[in-house]
Amino acid sequence: xxxxxxxVIHRRRDVRGEFTGEPVPDDVLDRVLSAAHAAPSVGLSQxxxxxxVRSDDVRKSFHQHVHAERExxxxxxxxxxxxxxxxxxxxxxxxxxLSIVVTYDASRGGPAVLGRHAIADAGLYSSCLAIQNLxxxxxxxxxxxxxxxxxxxxxxxxxLGIPDGVRPVAWLCAGPVTHxxxxxxxxxxxxxxxxxxxxxxxxxxxxxx
Length: 209
Hints:
Elements: H1 2-11, H2 26-37, E1 48-53, H3 56-74, H4 79-86, E2 98-105, H5 122-140, E3 143-148, H6 153-160, E4 166-176, H7 185-188
Antiparallel strand pairs: 1-2, 2-4, 3-4
Helix pairs in contact: 2-5, 3-6
C-alpha cells in the first residue's frame, strides 16, 4: 500500500499531448472529486468548488485565450528561450475529455476561520491541497491531469460566471491518456532541470547542513 502511494506520486505528470479524448466514467470522476473534497483545509473551511467543463464552446473560448497569453509570454523571451518554448505544448484543453476548474472562496467558513488569522493565504493553500489530492487520485485511476496556467483570472471568472470574491485557482484538463511520460515535459524539452533534493533541505535554519 505504501509502495503504491509513492509510485503514484512519482508517476504523476502534467499532461499536455497524451489525452485520448475518451470519456471519463461517472463513477471514476466521482471518486476523484471525492478525494479532492477529502483534502485538509484551514479551520475545516473547505474553501474550494469544482466546475466541471464539458462544453466545446466554452473550451474553445478558453483555448483561444490561452494561446493569446502564450504569445504574450513568448514575446517576453530571448530568442534562444523562445525557440525552446516553441517546442513545448502548454495545454490539452481541446484534446482532453473534460476540464475541472478549482476555485477558492475566502468567505467560506465565516469571518473568523480558525487558523487563518495570521496567514491569510492558508485558505488558498487549502484549495491547492485539494488539487493535489485530485491529481494523485486521477493518476491512480489511470487518468491524466494538465494544469493550465496561461490565463487571466478575470477572463476565466467571466467565462464561467464565477462570483466576485471567488478566485479561479486552476484549470485542470482531465481524461484518459495513452501513457504518462517518464520524464516531465519541461525537462525533456530542455526548459529546466529538476534540482536534487539535497539542495532543498536545510538543517535547523536556512543554509544549515
